[in-house]
């Protein structure tokens, strides 16, 4: 079992983001909840990943030739990511959704803030995926907005960027809805689906969303 299992978890609503970063932390807004990856979520995570294998394959990171393989098991992955999260280098969240009226949140996807750097850079990068059955319900835009606000307001980062393959129309709609600023093309930027792929880069600086990204998203999203 991962060493994170027994740690008390802090739950933060969209209106309570303040203070010092301390992992693990859960963020929530309406039916959307970001919760740290836990070993007990393995069965649900593996089930959703299997069901979405073909849906996710074109956008999934892969190992380039000569690359170092990561953890071989879900428990190992949780331990590795949780350690990096406690060190402030990464925020590995699962995305849960409770919008179907059944009263039990279901695993909807995953969102990770990676490459977190402090000092004069103060930036990080967000990646995400969503269960195909739940796409188009505003779950991921809400999750991204929650994560961005946490990074700006609690971790005091200055810049968040998202890199997306030009062919990924659905993911491009997420950053468009949230008002991320396009910064152009990075050729052969990440190893995805077996090869180095071009990516479009989108970014936000903290001063561009003085009232918070979640507040802006809620004011713009269709009702």
UniProtKB/TrEMBL annotation:
Keywords: Acyltransferase, Transferase. The keyword Acyltransferase applies. Pfam families: Acetyltransf_3. The keyword Glycosyltransferase does not apply. InterPro entries: Acyl_CoA_acyltransferase, GNAT_dom, N-acetyltransferase. One of its GO terms (cellular component) is cytoplasm. Residues 32-207 form the N-acetyltransferase domain. GO terms for molecular function: protein-N-terminal-alanine acetyltransferase activity. PROSITE patterns: GNAT. Belongs to the acetyltransferase family. RimJ subfamily. This is Ribosomal-protein-alanine N-acetyltransferase. It comes from Friedmanniella luteola.
């Amino acid at each position: 079992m991962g060493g994170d299992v027994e740690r008390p978890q802090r739950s933060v609503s969209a209106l309570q983001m303040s203070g010092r970063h301390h992992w693990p932390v859960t963020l929530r807004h309406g039916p959307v909840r970001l919760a740290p990856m836990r070993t007990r979520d393995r069965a649900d995570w593996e089930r959703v990943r299997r069901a979405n294998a073909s849906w996710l394959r074109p956008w999934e990171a892969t190992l380039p030739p000569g690359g170092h393989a990561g953890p071989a098991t879900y428990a190992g992955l949780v331990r590795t990511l949780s350690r990096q999260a406690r060190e402030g280098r990464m925020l590995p969240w699962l995305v849960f959704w409770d919008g179907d009226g059944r009263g039990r949140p279901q695993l909807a996807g995953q969102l990770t803030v990676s490459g977190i750097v402090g000092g004069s850079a103060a930036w990080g990068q967000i990646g995400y995926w969503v269960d195909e059955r739940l796409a188009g319900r505003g779950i991921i835009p809400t999750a991204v907005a929650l994560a961005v606000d946490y990074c700006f307001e609690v971790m005091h980062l200055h810049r968040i960027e998202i890199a997306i393959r030009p062919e990924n129309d659905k993911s491009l709609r997420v950053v468009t809805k949230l008002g991320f600023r396009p910064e152009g093309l990075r050729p052969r930027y990440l190893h995805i689906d077996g090869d180095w792929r071009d990516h479009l880069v989108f970014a936000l600086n903290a001063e561009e969303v003085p009232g918070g990204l979640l507040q802006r998203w809620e004011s713009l999203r269709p009702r």
